[in-house]
Design brief:
CATH class of chain A: Mainly Alpha
Number of domains of chain A: 1
Helix content of chain B: over 70%
Largest sheet of chain A: 2 strands, antiparallel
CATH topology of chain A: ABC transporter involved in vitamin B12 uptake, BtuC
Number of domains of chain B: 1
CATH architecture of chain A: Orthogonal Bundle
Radius of gyration of chain A: 19 Å
Oligomer: heterotrimer
Distance between the termini of chain A: 35 Å
Number of helices of chain B: 14
Distance between the termini of chain B: 37 Å
Shape of chain B: globular
Strand content of chain B: under 5%
Largest interface: A-B, 45 and 43 residues
CATH class of chain B: Mainly Alpha
Shape of chain A: globular
Strand content of chain A: under 5%
Chains: A mainly alpha (294), B mainly alpha (348), C alpha/beta (237)
Number of strands of chain A: 4
């Protein structure tokens, strides 16, 4: 029973990370129809920005405080990278969706290679504060606290994004833009600017995902963002391409299935079972894969 | 008999001439400093050229999906890897004779293409790209987990040398492997040309140009796309078989996301939807990848600041950045650019 | 009489087809100008060319300012309200959200909205996608009236509506035109006769007739020649 609980909480924690990785991707796809392959590079950028910040800050500062500063730096770096990529690379190819994908593919290859060139291909250990390494007793199980941190961050982000979509003017424009971009433009609203903001937001969220995932893994490595991106893709497709609630549900389902299969079947089967889950969803309900918000 | 027109002569004659020149290269003892390692017919150059040709074939096989049918698949590496691993595993673990192993590899790859294509085509466009990437990733996971010790995990799976003809084994036999690669790319080239001109090829072009209209014309677009995936995967699987024979084994890098993306890069670099474009793109991509590693190690970039040198010593950085530039400034690839230049100079 | 909008030699090419082949006309600063013509002659494209929703060349002057190089959102924010063919309301948004998208109610017309569309006030929390065609048309009209406009572009507002609703829409347009000039694409000739002052007729991407609305509509031979129809549709307006 206690093992089961541990696995479920770990699965939910992992699902939370998948949600963090997928939500920005889903938001960008829903509004702009852009499959942002560079999203993995955004995550890597965030993770390395945080790692560099933490190593540069004086060690007299507590690890927890350094991590907090690092998260802020990573959010900024992610947002800036997102905005720059949108303005410089995506915008000139407006409405050429395939070329946009190609450009982000090239960017992701180049970015991973650049990181590898500068910091090496090997994983670098990241410092983890006590909050992230400790365990807490729950119904007889010892559960690592970091799982709850990921869950809390993901739920806060989910709630925040829903509120943004529902109650703000930006959210209103995004929801309208998902339905009919041309008409939003024809009502006198600069959709382009909204794209840039959404890309910046997506970059910041991706960077946060990158930092938290490096905390989960205990290290940063150039390929980390890319491997997380593949799970984010699976989550976005299962969740319905652009629906935030769908993305959240799919993220937790994928995290749980992966952990349960890894424990109750052979280790390693979990990753495959996720792909199998994707195949089953595709076979069962391909019609669900249309865009929608919230 | 009608006299062939100059255009036909050019179209048939030029490839034949090129093929003859390439086939003769193992007899050329000259060396091209800087471009090739050692003599042209030395084992280093032969091995490099052979691998470049195999990559040209990979690009041709992927272009059946992307350039000809408009399918943005990120899962093509799966079929290349399937061909390669099915061959090496058949030979060593199952001790099959080479011809049977090749048939098993091709048959297995084709079956896999039917299943994976059949499922992935339930969605279109961008979702299709994401789904195919996920399937390719599954292959990567399987290969790296090394179930039952058959795939060799990160080490890869060596070719069982006793099971292949001795002329394909050993450093001194590099020219034979080169000819094998040349034969593969020739077969792929001819098959793609034939496919493009067939009824199925026209249907693929129709799907690429306008899927909605193709459906109206009574084409079952699902079947046309599935056919493209199966044919492309068959060629990719054949490439995997040849790759394993040329390189003496299967490497898990064939299943990596990087490799599956690089197939796209090759085709777009050369010029999507063009046989010559794919050949050129695949060949140059691998050549640049291999040579840039050496340039990085040779101290060419030593004058640059450390960070920049570190970045530039990564071939994928240069290729990725160059790819972005091509997407912007030469959307029809190098062959498109070349064609434009030729027309321009011809006109002036 | 001054003109609010002047098109001069406007061309639109989509891929291989040359849809507008040098369209030139002026929209007077008052009343309703009807843009007529058979199906597929380029009426909707003309509106889209004005808005920058179609790739155009030539010159488009809005209150003597050339807007041909401006992006759509700036053209619209600069004083053109657009009611597209098929309404194009945001079905997943509520009525209120559809209206709020345009911004806080500011214009003198905002009062008209409340007055003209009491129905919408009642239905403000309903999703626009669940409204009837007529109600959606009201949303599409209301959301442009919320802002001060120098000109309204209205594309077939009565298409597919029941006769009673056609009359309602015509009433609204007539009322709006008292303060804001309207360029109206419309197939319903009785309605054109009722509310339009001038007409511009397109054929195959060119202007073939300009003149008084009533004169054209009442000249059976001319309407037959230019539009291929006469006043068959009775009583709709």
């Amino acid at each position: 029973m206690s093992t089961f609980l541990l696995i479920v909480v770990t699965g939910l924690g992992l699902g939370a990370l998948y949600f963090l990785a997928a939500s920005g991707l889903s938001l960008i796809y829903g509004l702009m129809g852009v499959l942002n392959f560079a999203h993995g590079a955004f995550m890597t950028a965030g993770a390395y920005a945080a790692w560099v910040t933490m190593t540069r800050l004086p060690s007299s500062m507590g690890v927890g405080l350094r991590l907090l500063v690092a998260v802020v730096v990573a959010l900024l770096v992610g947002a800036i990278v997102g905005v720059v990529v949108e303005v410089v690379l995506i915008r000139p190819l407006y409405r050429h969706h395939i070329q946009q994908v190609l450009v982000t593919v090239g960017l992701s290859l180049a970015a991973v290679a650049a990181v590898q060139g500068i910091w090496g291909a090997d994983p670098r250990a990241v410092a983890r504060p006590e909050v992230m390494t400790g365990t807490v007793g729950l119904l007889g199980a010892r559960i690592p606290v970091d799982r709850f941190v990921y869950l809390a961050v993901a739920l806060a982000l989910f709630g925040g994004l829903l509120a943004l979509l529902r109650y703000t003017r930006l959210g209103l424009v995004i929801r309208a833009g998902v339905e009919n971009r041309t008409m939003v433009e024809a009502l006198g609203i600069d959709v382009q600017r909204t794209f840039t903001i959404v890309f910046g937001l997506g970059g910041a969220v991706a960077a946060l995902a990158g930092v938290l995932f490096s905390q989960y893994a205990g290290s940063v490595s150039p390929g980390q963002g890319g491997s997380l991106l593949i799970y984010a893709f699976i989550v976005v497709v299962i969740g319905g391409m652009g629906s935030l609630t769908g993305t959240a549900v799919a993220a937790f389902a994928v995290g749980l299935v992966q952990q349960l299969a890894n424990y109750y079947a052979v280790s390693g089967v979990g990753d495959l079972s996720v792909v199998l889950l994707l195949a089953l969803v595709l076979l069962a309900r391909p019609s669900s894969l249309k865009g929608a918000t919230a | 008999m009608t006299r062939p027109t100059p255009a036909t002569l050019l179209r048939v004659g030029l490839p034949l001439l090129l093929l003859a020149v390439l086939a003769y290269l193992p007899y050329v003892p000259a060396s091209i400093p800087g471009l090739l390692p050692g003599r042209i017919n030395g084992p280093g150059s032969m091995q490099l050229l052979a691998t470049c040709l195999v990559f040209a074939g990979f690009a041709l096989s992927y272009d059946v999906l992307f350039g000809r049918t408009g399918l943005l698949s990120f899962g093509h590496a799966l079929f290349v890897a399937a061909g390669s691993y099915l061959l090496t595993v058949s030979l060593s673990t199952w001790s099959l004779p080479l011809p049977v192993a090749i048939l098993a590899a091709l048959g297995g790859t084709t079956m896999l293409a039917l299943v994976v294509g059949g499922v992935a085509l339930r969605v279109g466009g961008i979702a299709f790209a994401m789904v195919t990437l996920a399937f390719a990733q599954a292959a990567s996971i399987i290969v790296l987990r090394d179930p039952g010790g058959v795939t060799g995990g990160e080490e890869g799976k060596a070719l069982n040398r006793d099971a292949v003809p001795s002329i394909l084994v050993g450093v001194q036999n590099a020219p034979y492997r080169y000819w094998l690669a040349l034969a593969f790319v020739t077969v792929a080239f001819v098959l793609v040309r034939l496919l493009v001109r067939s009824r199925a090829g026209h249907a693929m072009a129709a799907v690429r140009e306008n899927e909605g209209r193709a459906a109206v014309l009574g084409l079952t677009t699902y079947r046309v796309k599935l056919l493209a995936i199966v044919v492309g995967s068959f060629l990719g699987g054949l490439g995997g078989v040849v790759h394993a024979l040329v390189l003496g084994g299967s490497s898990p890098s064939l299943t990596s996301a990087e490799f599956t993306l690089s197939l796209l890069v090759m085709v777009v670099l050369g010029g999507a939807g063009s046989t010559w474009g794919a050949v050129l793109g695949g060949f140059l991509y691998h050549y640049a990848d291999a040579r840039l590693v050496e340039a990085g190690g040779s101290g060419v970039f030593d004058v640059l600041p450390d960070t920049l040198r570190a970045v530039l010593s990564q071939p994928l950085f240069i290729l990725g950045a160059f790819f972005v530039v091509v997407v912007y400034f030469a959307p029809s690839g190098l062959t498109g650019l070349g064609g434009r230049l030729i027309r321009k100079t011809g006109a002036s | 009489m001054s003109s609010v909008l002047v098109l001069d030699d406007v061309h639109v090419r989509y891929g291989g087809s040359h849809v507008l082949q040098g369209v030139s006309f002026e929209v007077p600063a008052t009343g309703v100008t009807a843009l007529l013509g058979r199906n597929g002659v380029g009426k909707t494209t003309t509106l889209k060319a004005v808005l920058g929703l179609a790739p155009r060349t030539g010159s488009v002057l809005l209150r003597e300012r050339d807007i041909v190089r401006e992006p759509t959102h700036r053209i619209v924010a600069g004083g053109i309200g657009y009611v597209p063919e098929d309404r194009e309301v945001f079905g997943g948004l509520t009525v209120e959200e559809n209206l709020r998208l345009v911004g806080p109610a500011e214009g003198a017309d905002a009062a008209i909205v409340r007055e003209l569309f009491p129905d919408l006030v009642q239905r403000r929390t309903q999703r626009a996608g669940t409204l009837s065609g007529g109600q959606q048309q009201m949303v599409a009209l209301a959301r442009v009236l919320l802002r001060e406009n120098d000109l309204l572009l209205v594309d077939e507002p009565t298409k597919g509506l029941a006769p009673k609703l056609v009359t309602e829409v015509a009433d609204v347009l007539a009322r709006v035109a008292e303060s804001t000039p309207v360029l109206l694409v419309e197939q319903n000739l009785p309605l054109v006769r009722r509310i339009a002052d001038t007409v511009v007729v397109l054929d195959a991407g060119r202007v073939v007739h300009r003149g008084d609305a009533r004169e054209l509509v009442e000249d059976q031979a001319l309407t037959q020649e230019l539009l291929g129809v006469s006043m068959r549709r009775e009583g709709a307006a």
